[in-house]
Write a structure and sequence with these properties.
Elements: H1 3-6, E1 10-21, E2 24-36, E3 41-46, H2 52-59, E4 67-72, E5 75-76, H3 82-92, E6 93-97, H4 108-113, H5 123-134, H6 150-162, E7 168-172, H7 180-195, E8 200-204, H8 208-211, E9 216-221, E10 224-230, H9 237-247
The protein binds adenosine-5'-triphosphate.
Family: Belongs to the ABC transporter superfamily. Macrolide exporter (TC 3.A.1.122) family.
Pfam family, one: ABC_tran
Organism: Rhodopirellula sallentina SM41
Length: 254
Amino acid sequence: MTDSQSAKPLHVDNVIKTYQQGTSKVHALDGVSLTVEPGEFVAIMGASGSGKSTLLHAMAGLIDVDGGSVTIAGQDLSELADGPLTRFRRDNLGIVFQAYNLIPSLTAEANIRLPAPKSMGREVDATVDQLLARLGMTERRTHKPGALSGGEQQRIAIARALICNPAILLADEPTGSLDSVSGTQICELLRALVDEQHRSIVMVTHEPHVAMWADRICVLKDGTNLAEIQTDGTRDPQTVARQYQETLGGEVVA
Ligand SMILES: Nc1ncnc2c1ncn2[C@@H]1O[C@H](COP(=O)(O)OP(=O)(O)OP(=O)(O)O)[C@@H](O)[C@H]1O
């Protein structure tokens, strides 16, 4: 990435999101704030229902917020109409989900190409080749998702998220469907995208051994910021688990 592409801080400022569930209101986000600097890897943890996925979806501009703002590279997402928002998201954000969301009838390579705009022209061929090589998937380029392992499918999903060279990657439980070896490989890959390519990553996870790959952990509780944990690059899951439990006051979490 060029310097100008990578200089894209993400600011979440006092965001509120309320859902109506039957006759009651659920305050999924109740004034959450978070800044992610370029080249930073931030994990979001919290008990089930604490608002992690809602926060990630707000950062991606996939939901409208009821208060506060999400600003990426100086652009308030709420000021963009649907078309410009879609283009802004494509140019600035890559999004990865637990369920990979690949198209089963398309090859790995074709899945990676899907989000690329026509304006990328022939550049897309070279980018696909580079991504397949970087992710160790060149040999698998013509395989369909059904012929790939979970870890391989998630690599293809990450390559698809990177096809437009976004500065920021948002990942919702990216290792949630993987065994521990494949999960660790995905974490190593995400860490390398930060260290080698200066991308920013925001990753939702329940798991201390996944969150430990981040620089910092933002802990949510009931839709609010509860605490921040600095991992200091120790990569020690027990330390992270203990610090996390301490922020929750010893509560048992899902
Ligand atoms: N589309 C929706 N309609 C109504 N309520 C919703 C909707 N999406 C989320 N919620 C509610 O908002 C709250 C926060 O949900 P969210 O999915 O963000 O939590 P989470 O921390 O990601 O949970 P989990 O770890 O279980 O995935 C929950 O009470 C949830 O039921």
